[in-house]
């Protein structure tokens, strides 16, 4: 009987959404609308790390045909964050205008206000977070 309960518990646990164990959460994800195809935009959001170790965001992808890059600012110039973006334990970082952001290039068609842009973020601990980014007016 105990073995049957243990097996059932294990199966039910496996069926729970992975987000229950997620260390990184995303809030306030927005990007600016575009007026034409191939016009670049940027994604801004807040990343919260509830874990006990630093986690690095190393990749952003979308099912919408586009090219996404992690960017930062250094001495007033935009730089590519090729080593990723570190999120310290028990802290939040904001990707905001004038700082770190996710640049969106090569959109095949314009994005209009109130549309959703699907985004998946990949972290060096194996975690991935999928979300919809709200498109806002410029």
Automatic annotation (TrEMBL):
Keywords, comma-separated and alphabetical: Signal
Entry protein name: Putative DR1885-like metal-binding protein
Species for this entry: [Pasteurella] mairii
Domain of life where this protein originates: Bacteria
SUPFAM superfamilies reported in the protein's UniProt record: DR1885-like metal-binding protein
Pfam family, one: PCuAC
Organism lineage string: Bacteria, Pseudomonadati, Pseudomonadota, Gammaproteobacteria, Pasteurellales
Tagged with keyword Signal: yes
Stretch forming the signal peptide: 1-22
Gene3D superfamilies in the cross-refs: PCu(A)C copper chaperone (2.60.40.1890)
